[in-house]
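Is zinc ion placement plausible here? Inputs below.
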Amino acid sequence: MILLGIDTSCDDTSAAVVCDGWDILSNIVSSQTEIHMKYGGIVPELASRRHIEMIWPVVDEALIQAGVLLDKIDAMAVCHGPGLIGSLLVGCGFAKAVAYARRIPLMAVNHLEGHIFSSFLEHKSPAFPFLSLVVSGGHTSLYLVEEFGRYYELGRTRDDAAGEAFDKVSKLLGLGYPGGPIIDKLASVGNGKVFNFPRAYLPESLDFSFSGLKTSVRNKIQESGVRNKGTLNREHLSDEFIKDIAASFQAAVVDVLVRKVEWATVKTGIKRVTISGGVAANAALRSRMAELAGEKEIELFLPSRHLCTDNAAMIAAAGHHHFMTGEKVDMELNPKAYLPLGKPVA
Ligand code: KG4
Ligand code: ZN
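Reply from A.M.:
I modeled the complex. Tokens:
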């Protein structure tokens, strides 16, 4: 069963051809980073316009790389939210048109469900039930995945997503966008013990909070930077200082994420964990999670870095399961910017 997956939820245009829900024949991601970099964040209108330009070339490239003609595609899966509405509309409109013209089934996939299913694209799939930390630019949530289609949200961020905090700290330091990979690299050569930034453990729940940390980093930068008529002269921040800020900030984020995953395994008694979303590409988070897994005998599923960040193969993997359970959609499909996954758990 050959499925074409599409993801246009944010600023990447992606198409993938996946066989039987796990075998990736191609997974093309066209990044818009260059377009948005100069604004220090994503400009939604520019993102949707670029998706319109890129959707056909990206799908063509996915078919060519997979060595598959469009008439050999058995079904399609498209991300219908959450995300930027203009961006989602491009992917959904495209997928509906192709599915209708080719008379093939179409499945709608929640982007967060896609991230969870990125762990099914490699080696061994996790057995149900498992815990899943989705940690990206828009979301930081911990799910209990009872089985396919049964998701319970154990905790979520009360303010910023972890990836958003990485992006904001990078911006505060006058570095580029997206901030996660830049901070990751700088942190590897910085000292994470120089600044003791706050960790919001919120011990009464499995929720997260990163806005206090971000404010604390901003205060530290402002204290240390040279001020000129109220604006910060970032060029006066030393390389050493920037590296240590990056490492100390990252250490605080990673400590909280790792601790929360540990608590979730204790609370639920489930010792099988998947991690996904862009921040799951972070080197420190990956190694600290692997350490925790070793110490506490947790079965850990960490997708390769390129499957952690947004991609359409994960949409195809989840779409395959929708197909198997007969959950198809029709031409009435409309994307939704706000689309929570699963039920919250008290
Ligand atoms: O999953 P994703 O590609 O898109 C969303 O669904 O949001 O995640 C993007 C986020 C961005 O905030 C980016 O800065 C962050 O993931 N990110 C990272 C790393 N690579 C990407 N954060 C920390 N370390 C990384 N290596
Ligand atoms: Zn994502």
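Short version: The chain has a mean pLDDT of 95.
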